[in-house]
Design goal:
homodimer; alpha/beta; Rossmann fold; 2 domains
Chain lengths: ~220, ~220
């Protein structure tokens, strides 16, 4: 390897995965600068749960509440993101893993930009979620289990997917033909099966306030 | 295909690439809401040019200027992003194309979040840049050619890469062993070979003001 270049804006050359000869660029506006300017911290709010458990609904409602308080926030949605960043991926185990990996990396970029990143994915596998957790400092990954029983989710069948899965039209459908590994010790568990949306939002906001990520309510 | 589900928060089921059975989720906080709250529009500022042309330097300086004005902005840097989202990619033509595609999709997400996304990549191929341009509405993709002559860039050799390329240690190095397709009609061309950084920043800010993306200077 060559010696580190003399330009102080560039770090030493490193090797990461298949990307060789890349130098970490230290930007002048960092996360701490954003936190100071915006008076709130950034973090990943990772909503996980069965299809129909209400992940997107809760994430978007929390997002709207944060927006209303003037905070920087954004929802990365499993359905939305597959139209773009991950449209090359299917639903095999490998593709699901890569899907979650990319989302985790994008969420990390938003956190770096000082934005609260809310993600709403089934993300059924503990190992994949833990990999995202490991991407960011302790306390920045907030796992929120949207806990609704399978029969409740199937009865809602928000997108008509359970019916298709039961009819054998969708392979490896979580809860039906593929496992969901519920978080053992999530930062939050929200009972999205019986609680109201308002209760869920209040629970998440209270957690963020308790952890000093957002300011306490007046 | 099934009929559109009755829940108004979900769109009709569609097929996109390899992702089937996905429904577009309409979030309640959209780009227009952010623009109204923040008093600036979002856009992609796509800095392109040879290695050593000063893309990252200019992008970060513009970013710092926007930050200082209280605007939401973020730099997606070629070097940085390859440590995370694209660490599975190398430098073959196919991998370079996928790298740019993913960056474009991520930049689009930032734009959707109301954030000015500044990207600093060599992005040597016109076709790849034009694909990103096509991702967003007209006027949202601002191509900024950091125009510095090859000999100037090679003399700077900020990261010591030209020396390695000349020594045959890097294959397909843009400008040496792989072509750079300069933009024919970029929104902006900044002479990063001879102008000062301050002149470049002023040129970009003036463009953003003229297009109404940021407020005019007082």
């Amino acid at each position: 390897m060559t010696a580190a270049p003399s330009n102080p804006a560039y770090g030493a050359l490193t090797t990461e995965g298949n990307s060789t000869n890349i130098a970490w660029h230290h930007t002048s506006v960092d996360r701490a600068a954003w936190a100071q300017q915006r008076s709130h911290r950034s973090a990943i709010l990772w909503f996980t749960g069965l299809s129909g458990a209400g992940k997107s609904t809760l994430a978007n409602a929390v997002n709207a509440a944060l927006f209303a308080q003037g905070l920087a926030c954004y929802v990365l949605d499993g359905d939305n993101i597959r139209h773009g960043l991950c449209k090359d991926l299917g639903f095999s185990d490998a593709d699901r893993e890569e899907n979650i990996r990319r989302i985790g990396e994008v969420a990390k970029l938003f956190v770096d930009a000082g934005v609260v990143a809310l993600t709403a994915f089934v993300s059924p596998f503990k190992a994949d979620r833990d990999k995202v957790r490991a991407l960011v400092p302790t306390g920045d990954f907030i796992e929120i289990h949207c806990a609704a029983d399978l029969d409740v989710c199937e009865q809602r069948d928000t997108k008509g997917l359970y019916a298709k899965a039961r009819a054998g039209q969708i392979k490896e459908f979580t809860g039906i033909s593929s496992p969901y590994e519920a978080p053992e010790a999530p930062e939050l568990r929200v009972d999205t099966g019986s609680q109201s949306l308002e209760q869920g939002v209040a629970q998440v906001l209270a957690y963020l306030q308790a952890k000093g990520i957002i300011a306490a309510a007046n």
